[in-house]
């Protein structure tokens, strides 16, 4: 959980309550934020110098809240498949329970604030590196170079974020989206393991399966 306390925490939580499908973080007004948080409007500037700095704090709060749970799941996983399955279930579950957090992440990634776009990219890169480090440390995938594991981790993070709004807005498709995401992750790792093989070697490996 985040270490935010007092007025900072109240303002961040107020922003997440105010964000809706039609509103973004950068559209919120200071007076509106303060009113929702139950604080004097001048309190905002005692904690933040501007909206960009406030936005960075919101993104950090969301990222830390979610990464804590994901980190524990990966450390308990016994295989890459288990890690993929449990991580996907947790992340989509978090997004579904915290739709405002999803809206912030998806919108600000391509939003008007350069500072927030860059900050979100930094958060995504940090998540990818942490994912790769956990996979390598736990030896969940053998035979892949660290840079390859990191590349797949980056693709995984971006894919999950890309599908997050679909997951929230389409309850009947959630199970399918979750399964598709698991398959995406597992196929990336399995495909990477076959990259050094020739087409003939890959076909020879697949032939017994086809014959069965």
- What CATH calls the topology of the domain at 51-195 is Tetracycline Repressor, domain 2
- The CATH architecture name of the domain at 51-195 reads Orthogonal Bundle
N-to-C SSE series? HHHHHHHHHH
What gap, in angstroms, lies between the N and C termini? 50 Å
- Mind describing the biggest β-sheet? none
**Can you count the beta strands?**
0
Radius of gyration: 20 Å
Q: Number of helical runs?
A: 10
Helix percentage range: over 70%
Broad CATH class of the domain at 51-195: Mainly Alpha
CATH superfamily of the domain at 51-195: Tetracycline Repressor, domain 2
Q: Proportion of β residues?
A: under 5%
Which outline best applies? elongated
Task: Give the mean pLDDT.
Answer: 83
Judged by helices, strands and strand pairing, the structural class is mainly alpha
Q: Low-confidence parts lasting 5 or more residues at pLDDT below 50?
A: none
């Amino acid at each position: 959980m985040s270490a935010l306390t007092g007025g900072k925490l109240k303002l961040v939580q107020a922003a997440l309550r105010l964000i809706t499908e039609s509103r973004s973080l950068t559209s919120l007004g200071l007076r509106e934020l303060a009113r929702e948080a139950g604080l004097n409007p001048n309190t905002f500037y005692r904690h933040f110098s501007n909206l960009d700095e406030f936005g960075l704090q919101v993104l950090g709060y969301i990222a830390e809240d979610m990464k804590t749970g994901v980190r524990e799941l990966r450390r308990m996983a016994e295989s890459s498949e288990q890690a993929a399955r449990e991580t996907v279930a947790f992340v989509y579950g978090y997004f579904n329970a915290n739709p405002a957090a999803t809206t912030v992440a998806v919108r600000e990634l391509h939003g008007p604030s350069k500072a927030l776009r860059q900050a979100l990219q930094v958060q995504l890169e940090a998540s990818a590196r942490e994912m790769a480090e956990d996979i390598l440390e736990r030896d969940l995938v053998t035979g892949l170079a660290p840079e390859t594991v990191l590349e797949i981790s980056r693709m995984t993070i971006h894919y999950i974020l890309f599908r997050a709004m679909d997951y929230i807005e389409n309850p009947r498709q959630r199970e399918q989206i979750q399964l598709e995401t698991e398959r995406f992750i597992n196929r990336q790792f399995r495909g990477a393991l076959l990259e050094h093989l020739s087409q003939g070697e890959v076909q020879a490996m697949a032939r017994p399966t086809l014959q069965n």
